[in-house]
Amino acid sequence: MSVNAHSLSQPKQNSGFFSWLWEWLSTVDHKKIAILYLFGGGLFFLIGGIEAMLIRIQLAVPENTFLVGHNYNEVITMHGTTMIFLAAMPFIFALMNAVIPLQIGARDVAFPFVNALGFWLFFMGGIILNLSWFLGGAPAGGWTAYAPLSSEFLGNGMDFYVLGLQVAGAGTLMGAINFLVTIVNMRAPGMTFMRLPLFTWTVFITAVLILFAFPALTVGLFLIFFDRLFDANFFNEANGGNSIIWEHIFWIFGHPEVYILILPAFGVISEVIATFSKKRLFGYSSMVFATILIGFLAFMVWVHHMFTVGLGPSANTIFAIATMAIAVPTGIKIFNWIFTLWGGQITFNTANLYAVGFIPTFVMGGVTGVMLAVPTADFQYHDSYFVVAHFHYVIVGGLIFGLFSGFYYWWPKMFGRHLNETLGKINFWLFFIGFHLTFFFQHFLGLMGMPRRYFTYLKGEGFDAFNMVSTIGAFLMFFAVIVMLINIAYSAVKGEKAKGDAWEQGRTLEWSIASPPPEYNFAQTPLVKGIDAFWKEKMDGKDKMTAAEPVGDIHMPSSSIVPFLMSISLTIASLGFIFSAHDGVRKPALFVAGAGVVLFFLCMLARSIKDDPGFHIHKEEVIETEKGVR
Amino acid sequence: MATKQSETTMYIQKQQRKREMQHYLVSFGLMIIFTLLAFGTVMIDGIPKHFTSFFIVTLAIVQVLFQLYYFMHLKDKDHGFPTLFIFSGALVAFITVLTFVSIVWIS
Ligand SMILES: [Cu+2]
């Protein structure tokens, strides 16, 4: 890192609410951005969860009238969209930001400014989407927004979907590029690719998938945007368009998206199981290979969402075989986790319970996935509750279990305090049992013929009992989340203070520094000598990493409010475009949109012109801080 | 001694630059020839149509590769990642386009 920029010391701010707010709005520190992502994702996770509860209350008994028709469609659409884009993705980015720079021995990400921008774009995208509730109704076309329903027939809500996801998607894309560059360029000396912790590997492949998949969504959303607001005809069959193209574009993005979600969970599970089995991860190189293979195959399988469209037997067969092939690398991973556990000294704390609970749950989701990959059988399963059960098994039973495991595991590192284990275990068992109650029986509902996305069913169709059980399970999951919130509050007030090596058997670099880490992460860049670098040093009888450099001044990026302003200006632009669909206000609304875009470019200009030298934390200050934590 | 060494390295660098320049000129010339060939095949009557389209697409691909490797430095060392990413992206784009020209369902 070059240190010949101007030596500015950080301006000291006076305390108070506004300086606190300012600090969070303008931060570019990856550890704070991780907390922002966690908060933003958590907020939308709760909103999406409440929507899920509304759905389950409506379906608890036959012929219910609690939430019907268009309102029900709005709620299912917002539930899916919120959970995927506004809860799962930011949770993943929270863990990425909190952990990746620490795991590779870096002081920050490659582009701290872009990192902040990515967060604020995601957050404002989520706000735009959720504003629809108050401004004329939410989108109601399902999270897949199939054309021409979404491009011609649904009301103003779809505009919120299009522009909200466009803004949030831009943030995600930036975040991914940032992490790619970080992992390629900012690894500590000795941290070769085949020594990267598995979480870093999976995040790396996830970032590649985002880089290649999200542009498809961006393009698709632009096409719908033009169809809706400027009377284009991309998806209008009557005027020579083709609505099937939307399905292709959406799933060219949508299938990789599923792996974007699940791969980081695989990474978390690999870290947690290895740590709490006190063993090196079994088959490290085969894990890396399997991750890359899954990432590669992710782009060859999207048609399995479209078997019933009528693309013909040859197309269906090719994509069916490609889909089934994915079971092979996934199977490799499952066996490697089991072999890691085998003969280990296993600690069953909450993090590890989630990780171990993940394995059978995810296998069930995988098995139904292979069942769905058979085109002939898929004609039976398609758009039934069998599909709903399948993807909740992989997304909740896979991704959310992985994320919760990661939260319990890295919480002490992020906040310097442990979460309570008793509450944690209550949280786990409620969630685990509630999850299986909710979704296991939906397999049978699907096989019995209950279609997905219908807001009710009749008495005497035989769906009553399973739906009731499913709703009870959903309430258990809801209570589990409340327990988790209580746990977080408890930890913030009375939680046990965490040591640097919080679990006392940490293997990777993040555990070699204080919890929470100082602003500069590593006082001295560590020298990595093998896989599980910190564990290796501990086995050699040391309690910290060998340094690769002497203690010196540390260069830091200065904070900036510009990312927040840029996101605000895009929000203004989006709202302008959304309201331009209303006849009476088209001209002024388009003017507002234009003003937002201009503001955005002015922010970019300001950022380009203003020189940002950053500041230095001086050697003496670093030594002083390091004394405090040891 | 030291001066002699630096003279040698300077000589080597000069030679390298010379070779680099030659590569540029050769690939530039080749590209002009390719372009002329492409225009030629289209303009001359009597060449079968499917041969023409096959031929000019091939020429286009070769030209893109020349561009990437010689003018955008993919052939230099430490360009492994950009190369990998460009080709992965190209592969994904290719599969997508292939799908759109082959299996998009039209009623
Ligand atoms: Cu899929």
TrEMBL record, chain A:
Catalyzed chemical reaction(s): 4 Fe(II)-[cytochrome c] + O2 + 8 H(+)(in) = 4 Fe(III)-[cytochrome c] + 2 H2O + 4 H(+)(out)
Topology within the bilayer: Multi-pass membrane protein
The organism's place on the tree of life at top rank: Bacteria
Alphabetized CDD domains for the sequence: Ubiquinol_Oxidase_I
UniProt EC number: 7.1.1.9
Biological role stated in the UniProt entry: Cytochrome c oxidase is the component of the respiratory chain that catalyzes the reduction of oxygen to water. Subunits 1-3 form the functional core of the enzyme complex. CO I is the catalytic subunit of the enzyme. Electrons originating in cytochrome c are transferred via the copper A center of subunit 2 and heme A of subunit 1 to the bimetallic center formed by heme A3 and copper B.
Pathway, per record: Energy metabolism; oxidative phosphorylation
Pfam family, one: COX1
PANTHER family per record: CYTOCHROME C OXIDASE SUBUNIT 1
Name of the protein described by the UniProt record: Cytochrome c oxidase subunit 1
Species of the source: Scopulibacillus darangshiensis
InterPro entries (UniProt xref): Cyt_c_oxase-like_su1_dom, Cyt_c_oxase-like_su1_sf, Cyt_C_Oxase_1, Cyt_c_Oxase_su1_BS, Cyt_c_oxidase_su1_bac
Record GO terms (molecular function): cytochrome-c oxidase activity; heme binding; metal ion binding
Subcellular location: Cell membrane
NCBIfam families associated with the record: CtaD_CoxA
Entry's family note: Belongs to the heme-copper respiratory oxidase family.
Keywords on record: Cell membrane, Copper, Electron transport, Heme, Iron, Membrane, Metal-binding, Respiratory chain, Translocase, Transmembrane, Transmembrane helix, Transport
Domain Cytochrome oxidase subunit I profile: 16-529
GO BP, sorted A to Z: electron transport coupled proton transport; oxidative phosphorylation; respiratory electron transport chain
Catalytic class of the enzyme: translocase
Listed transmembrane segments: 34-55, 75-96, 117-140, 160-186, 198-226, 249-269, 281-303, 315-339, 351-374, 386-411, 423-445, 465-490, 561-582, 588-609
Principal subcellular localisation of the protein: membrane
GO CC terms, sorted: plasma membrane
The keyword ATP-binding appears for this protein: no
UniProtKB/TrEMBL annotation, chain B:
GO biological process: aerobic electron transport chain; electron transport coupled proton transport
GO CC terms: cytochrome o ubiquinol oxidase complex; plasma membrane
Topological type in the membrane: Multi-pass membrane protein
Subcellular location: Cell membrane
Molecular-function annotations in GO: cytochrome bo3 ubiquinol oxidase activity; proton transmembrane transporter activity
Residues that span the membrane, as ranges: 21-44, 50-72, 84-106
UniProt keyword annotation of Transmembrane helix present: yes
Predominant cellular place of this UniProt entry's protein: membrane
Keyword Transmembrane: yes
Keywords, alphabetical: Cell membrane, Membrane, Transmembrane, Transmembrane helix
Family, similarity comment: Belongs to the cytochrome c oxidase bacterial subunit 4 family.
Protein name: Cytochrome c oxidase subunit 4
Organism: Scopulibacillus darangshiensis
